[in-house]
C-alpha cells in the first residue's frame, strides 16, 4: 500500500511538471504576426475609372466687354443646367481677347440644340453684350486627358477623308513627339453632325515651339499623308480668370 501511495505521488509530480513545461499558446503570436503584416502591407493602389466618351458643345462669339459679360453669364447658369449643359471652360482668344470659346458637356444633343436655337438665348446674349453671331459646334470626345491643366491651349480643327486612316497616322506620330514640340494632348473629338470633322485640343508648354510646329511644312505634309482635306483652323486661347 505504501509502495502504491509513493508511485501515485511520483505520477502527480510528473503531471504537474509536464504542465509547467508545456509550450505557450500560439494564438497571441499569430495575432501579433497578423498585426505586423497589416502594418507593413501597403494599401491597394487607386484604380482610375475607365474613360467613357462624352459629348460637348462649343460656343464661339465676341463680347463687347468681358468684365460686364461674365457676371451675366454666371447668372444664367440655372437655365443651362436645366438644359443638360455642364460648364467646362471659357477661353479668351490670344489675338483678340474679347473673342471667346465656351465649352460645355451635354447630356442630350437635341435638348441642347433646342436651347441654342431658342429666341430666349439670343435675347440673353444681346442683352449681355454679345456683338457677333455665335458659332455653335457639337463634338463627340473619344479621348481625354483629365490631368491636363494648362492655361494656354490651341484648338486644331480640320476635315479628313477617312477618320480611321487619319487616326493611325496621328497615333504613329505619338504624344511624345508632340510633347517635344511644346504640345500636350488634351482631347480628341469628332464632329457629331460630321464624324469626319476632327477637333483636337493641346495644352501648350512652350508657345514658341508650338507655333513653329503649327507652321512647319513637315506637319502640313503629315496632315496631307493622313488624309486631311481642308485647311486646318488653328486658334490659340488662354483660360479666362
What does this structure look like?
The chain is of the alpha+beta class and 241 residues long. It has one domain: 2-Layer Sandwich (Alpha-Beta Plaits). The protein has 10 helices and 8 strands. A hairpin with a 5-residue loop joins strand 2 and strand 3. Helix 7 runs antiparallel to helix 10. It starts with a helix and ends with a strand.
List the keywords.
42% helix, 8 strands, alpha+beta, 241 residues, globular, 10 helices, disordered N terminus
Name the beta content range. 25-35%
Number of helices: 10
Number of strands: 8
Which structural class should the secondary elements be placed in?
alpha+beta
Provide the CATH architecture.
2-Layer Sandwich
How much helix is in the residues? 40-55%
Element pattern in H and E: HHEHHEEHHEEHHEEHHE
- The average pLDDT is 87
CATH topology: Alpha-Beta Plaits
Integer-rounded radius of gyration: 34 Å
Large-scale geometry: globular
Question: In which order are the strands of the major sheet placed?
Answer: 1-3-2-8-5-7-6-4
Distance between the termini: 107 Å
Task: Outline the secondary-structure elements.
Layout: H1 2-20, H2 27-40, E1 54-62, H3 66-75, H4 77-82, E2 85-93, E3 99-106, H5 109-117, H6 119-127, E4 135-144, E5 152-159, H7 163-173, H8 175-180, E6 183-191, E7 197-204, H9 207-214, H10 217-226, E8 233-239
Antiparallel strand pairs: 1-3, 1-4, 2-3, 2-8, 4-6, 5-7, 5-8, 6-7
Amino acid at each position: 500500500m505504501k509502495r502504491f501511495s509513493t508511485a501515485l505521488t511520483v505520477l502527480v509530480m510528473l503531471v504537474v511538471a509536464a504542465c509547467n513545461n508545456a509550450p505557450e499558446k500560439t494564438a497571441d503570436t499569430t495575432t501579433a504576426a497578423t498585426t505586423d503584416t497589416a502594418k507593413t502591407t501597403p494599401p491597394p493602389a487607386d484604380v482610375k475609372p475607365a474613360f467613357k466618351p462624352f459629348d460637348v458643345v462649343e460656343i464661339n462669339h465676341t463680347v463687347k466687354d468681358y468684365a460686364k459679360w461674365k457676371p451675366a453669364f454666371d447668372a444664367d447658369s440655372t437655365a443651362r443646367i436645366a438644359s443638360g449643359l455642364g460648364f467646362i471652360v471659357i477661353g479668351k482668344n490670344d489675338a483678340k481677347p474679347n473673342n471667346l470659346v465656351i465649352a460645355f458637356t451635354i447630356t442630350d444633343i437635341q435638348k441642347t440644340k433646342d436651347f441654342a436655337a431658342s429666341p430666349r438665348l439670343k435675347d440673353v446674349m444681346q442683352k449681355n453684350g454679345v456683338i457677333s453671331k455665335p458659332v455653335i459646334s457639337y463634338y463627340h470626345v473619344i479621348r481625354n486627358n483629365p490631368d491636363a491643366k494648362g492655361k494656354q491651349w490651341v484648338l486644331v480643327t480640320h476635315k479628313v477623308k477617312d477618320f480611321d486612316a487619319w487616326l493611325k497616322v496621328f497615333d504613329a506620330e505619338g504624344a511624345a513627339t508632340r510633347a517635344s514640340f511644346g504640345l500636350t494632348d488634351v482631347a480628341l473629338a469628332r464632329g457629331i453632325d460630321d464624324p469626319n470633322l476632327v477637333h483636337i485640343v493641346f495644352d501648350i508648354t512652350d508657345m514658341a515651339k508650338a507655333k513653329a510646329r503649327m507652321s512647319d511644312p513637315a506637319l502640313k505634309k503629315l496632315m496631307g499623308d493622313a488624309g486631311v482635306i481642308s485647311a486646318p483652323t488653328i486658334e490659340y486661347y488662354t483660360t479666362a480668370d
